[in-house]
Amino acid sequence: MDGHLKVNRCWKAHFEKMGKEKSKKAAAKAPKEEVPPPPKPLVTFHLCGTDELQICGVLAAFNLLVSSLPSPAPFAIVPLKAEQVIAAMGSRAPKNCGVMMTDSLGRGTPLFGLKQCLSGLAPPLPSQVESSNVSQWMGWCESVLVPAVNKPDKLLEKAASTLSSHLSTTPTGRISDRRSLTIADIYAITTLMPIIPTFKPLTDPSALTSFLSTVPQSPLFSKTFSDSGRFITEKAPSDGLLSTLRGIFSSALYSTFPEAPELGISIMVTQTKDPKNGEYQCNNAMELFKKLPKPNAFKAPRDVALALTSEISHPLIEKLDVAGPGFINITLSTTFLTDKLKNLVVSGDPRPAKPKTAPKKVVVDFSSPNIAKDMHVGHLRSTIIGESVCRILEYTHHPTDRVNHVGDWGTQFGMLIQYLLESFPKIAEGDMTGVDIKDLTAFYKAAKIKFDEDEVFKKVAQQNVVKLQGGDEACRKIWQLLCDISRAEFEKVYKRLGVDVKECGESFYNEMIPGVIEELTAMNLVVPDGGAKCIFVPEYRIPLMVQKSDGGFGYDSTDMAAISYRLRELKAGQVVYITDFTQGDHFMMIFDAAKRAGWWNATSHKITHIGFGTVCGEDGKRFKTRSGDTVRLVDLLDESVRRMEESLLERNKEGKGSIPEGEIRSTAEKIGYGAIKYFDLSRNPTSNYIFSYDAMLDTRGNTGVYLMFAKARLGSIINKAREAGVDVADLEKAGGLELDLGHVTERSLAIEILKFPDVIENVLEALAPHKVCEYLYNMSLVATSFVTECRIMENGVPNKSRLLLCSIAGNVMQACFHLLSIECPDRI
Ligand code: ARG
């Protein structure tokens, strides 16, 4: 410790000298040797932020400052990966700490905010400054900090004496009263303070303004900005209940127990099952008690819990109780809940706000059926999951490229072309008379039989593949015809399912493949193997084959070219592939090879394969028709709608339904398709499932149909109120309404609604539609018990607060249906 003090004194001497020669003239005249040689940096500041402009602005300003100082600068600034700090601090980090500093000595916690660092220097920052942006901070610098540091001597002395007295009484180097400054703070003060006046423009507030405006134009700033990917996270924290609570508790944890990160402790907050134990609970006290270095002031985990709670005061929290051995039970504040809900009413839309920095593009490769073959139930999964994944990304403001990587270039075309030529000989001259292949599947089957049985046919067919890929015009024409027929069939399915995907099939990459192979060969990634060209991937027995021994290109070649194109031409920051799980190894090898080629790395890109499980029949085996054929997707959709139509007509006959005859078909389509989608999306994609119309069309339980009923029920209440003269839309517009959460079901519904941002954050992270389903189902249960237990119409007069709750819940449910691409009928 003494050593550090000496170094500090040495700096003090250095700056005192510098201070005396402050004026430019004097500085110019002063012989260089008179200034004591500057020692090594005293402190390394780790700077971290999550807002690109904010962190870049501050970092660039610091860098400019450093570059204007005699070399070496007394402090070094190292950008810290935001993830590291977030991991240590929970979600509070990015939002409330515009700039965070930790010291290079590893002391203290990431909680050193700018506020702490500078609080010995000047009047405290206004409380909002720590969560403010760089311009607010700069404004504070200009109006408060700079005038204060213009009288540096006293402050310097004060800081130095605080430091020495603390160092002499605190052997660990940590200042015992955790509310006061830490060593890093003192270092910051003693180093920063004398420096600031030596930086000429900073001594003059008006020059400061111009300095600040020149920062963004400086090359240093652009460099910092372009480097920013390394230390900035794009993830903004949600303001959901759970995230907020985690933030509050994390910050209390780190200020009460600064050693928590070193002990590997991070805050766990969960929702409780029984409201007797509060609404949420934090259970870290027991673990903390066990891990805290002994001796310490705590006799039992309860004391730890009490110490933690004594640090907490936040408008979200009504009450904290320490129960049992040290559980912290959290009761939320009703005022806070109602205020949050009112905000939702005013904005009318639960969608998260646009992040300040636009997220990078995401390429989603989904659906991707094969030309001339039917779309089967496996493609159904890819199509449904893919559409939902795209909606999740777009809802959270990510630009997406929805790519249909259709199989339009495989070896099957050789035999199809040959079979067509033989069946319709005039086709080669462009005469299409009599060509009728609406049923491509039957045509494909016939060609395949011939291919397997007739050696001569097989040979010619194989030559056709080479001709096609080499650009032979006749082959291309026939190929185009086949693609057009298939495309029209695929489009019909997409239209029925409300799916939007742009075709960019295997053939698109054909021209790029030779260049890609050449590049990979130059990197020594490609190895000749029995006449073929292969990329070996550690831990996989079979290599990727980028060129076959006959010179042809296959599935692997195309995918290498495709990933290169997506990362380097389309500049995607994230690529998602959605296929059945059996292709997992193929993609792992493609990702690995692309990484070794330097086309992506894990810090700047995210590449995922969502591999889904098999759809099985009632017998638990792969879903087949009675005759053993694969099930055609269109037949499956037809059957679901047919059954739903039948059941709606039945309900009408029994007097239970209210759908006019003319709307039965369109309603049955919405429910039928929605039920299939929900059945698929509601489980973890990796699991297999048994396809069952009875299960998916059930009106009870966790099914799409039940959820649509629950939503329609809210809608019909709103309609009734309108008929009684109260239009909820008018209430929402008028504002200024009181919301009453007195009944337990009202309160539970409010909490469920306010969980939405947490859910979205989770769903986006994992690209997991099943988590949307989980939430939607819970919401339906809570909303149903609310409308069952709370009368919304009392003697024909609607209760306005309850009506508003119905409306907000309905909006949040609607947002979930949208994410699942389920169109919900207004009436059932
Ligand atoms: N056409 C393939 C199939 O039906 C799926 C393609 C997936 N995408 C890709 N880039 N390989 O299995």
Automatic annotation (TrEMBL):
Domain Arginyl tRNA synthetase N-terminal, chain residue ranges per copy: 243-332
Major enzyme class: ligase
GO molecular function: arginine-tRNA ligase activity; ATP binding
Gene Ontology biological process terms from the UniProt entry: arginyl-tRNA aminoacylation
The enzyme's E.C. designation: 6.1.1.19
Keywords noted in UniProt: Aminoacyl-tRNA synthetase, ATP-binding, Ligase, Nucleotide-binding, Protein biosynthesis
Catalytic activity: tRNA(Arg) + L-arginine + ATP = L-arginyl-tRNA(Arg) + AMP + diphosphate
Pfam families: Arg_tRNA_synt_N, DALR_1, tRNA-synt_1d
Cross-referenced InterPro entries: aa-tRNA-synth_I_CS (IPR001412), Arg-tRNA-ligase (IPR001278), Arg-tRNA-synth_N (IPR005148), Arg-tRNA-synth_N_sf (IPR036695), ArgRS_core (IPR035684), DALR_anticod-bd (IPR008909), Rossmann-like_a/b/a_fold (IPR014729), tRNAsynth_Ia_anticodon-bd (IPR009080)
PROSITE patterns: AA_TRNA_LIGASE_I
Domain DALR anticodon binding, residue spans: 707-828
GO cellular component annotations of the record: cytoplasm
Family: Belongs to the class-I aminoacyl-tRNA synthetase family.
Name the UniProt record assigns to this protein: arginine--tRNA ligase
